[in-house]
Amino acid sequence: MLIVMNKQATPEQIESVVTEIEKRGYVARPIPGGDRITIGILHNQGPVDAAPFLGMPGVSDAISVTKPYKLVSRECKPDDTLIQVGDVVIGNGHLTIMAGPCAIESESQALTIARHVKAAGAQIFRGGAFKPRTSPYSFQGLGEKGLEILAKVREETGMPVITEVMDDETFDLVESYTDIIQIGTRNMQNFSLLRRAGKAQKPVMLKRGMAATIEEWLMAAEYILEGGNTDVMLCERGVRTFVSHSRNTLDLSSIPVVRKQSHLPIIVDPSHAAGRRDQVIPLSRASVAAEAHGLMVEVHHEPDKALSDGAQSLYPEQFVRLCREVHAIFDIFHPADGELA
Ligand code: PEP
Ligand code: MN
Questions:
Q1: What's this model's pTM, rounded to 2 decimal places?
Q2: Mean pLDDT by 10 residues, the chain (341 residues)
Q3: Same domain, 28 and 133
Q4: Which of 219, 241, 298, 332 has its Cβ near the most Cβ atoms within 10 Å?
Q5: Is the CB of 207 inside a 6 Å radius of any atom of ligand 1?
Q6: Residue 297 and residue 314 in contact, taking contact as beta carbons nearer than 8 Å
Q7: Which atom of ligand 1 is nearest to the CA of 128?
Q8: 256 located within any domain
């Protein structure tokens, strides 16, 4: 249930509602947004009786939340969440492009790629330091050394960085270096990791599990918001299907569904969806046309020598084209001031 306060509600009136909720053994979560405050009632095991709240000063309405996810739902928070990372804003009205190699391999590799992607228009640099690999014999990432290189990239280029956290043990370390914490497809339902992410002081990008429904994905995001971290973005990266013409199948329809059901930004990773570079630009264009809030793209200056995911990594000049084309598409929906829509 959501208690909607009227616009003039005082802090004391809000506090009284919170106290009333807590007296019943529930958890109260004030949700600021737009021009009114709503208070979410969480952890109720059965239906909540709205009557006692409706009679309280400052309360304008009580709405039952029909979805199993609460804090991530639009019912709870109608206005879009915008996430600020340095100078970059992620969310509705913005197109945020994150790019970089699958894995950080060396300082010169990371810096070379970072300079290329920045010049092409990327705002955030990606690169894995702790890599979840199918085979234990594959390159596992440089670990802390990789994080140090990411910090160097940020220092030299001014770009915020995003990198994946794989487990609870390395969470503090990864959080101390990165600007955005990435939770990968394989960990989407790692509930202890999600709870830890809920306590993080940095924004989190939660990738969709490769066999997860949208509801399961939003429920996973709910764990992070329930823990107190509201800076969460979602990332569609393709789901497992029977096809062999691509590594995964990019579920473009998840974009309008997520935008309708949730206020959280949705980013698309066309690289892991495709698994091959010739599909990355078309899928990027389609994602932006479907109104994704951003893209995360793998780029490598020497993909044949890449230690992971070379086949899906764009050459820098291809990434230049990608940026140009997706911005042109984005501009169709977001004409500059003064232009007709
Ligand atoms: C990645 O982005 O580096 C990655 C491993 O992606 P995913 O979790 O989507 O496979
Ligand atoms: Mn990769």
A1: 0.96
A2: 94 96 95 85 92 95 91 94 98 98 98 98 98 97 98 98 98 98 98 98 98 98 97 98 97 98 98 98 98 98 98 98 98 77 47
A3: no
A4: 298
A5: yes
A6: yes
A7: 3
A8: yes
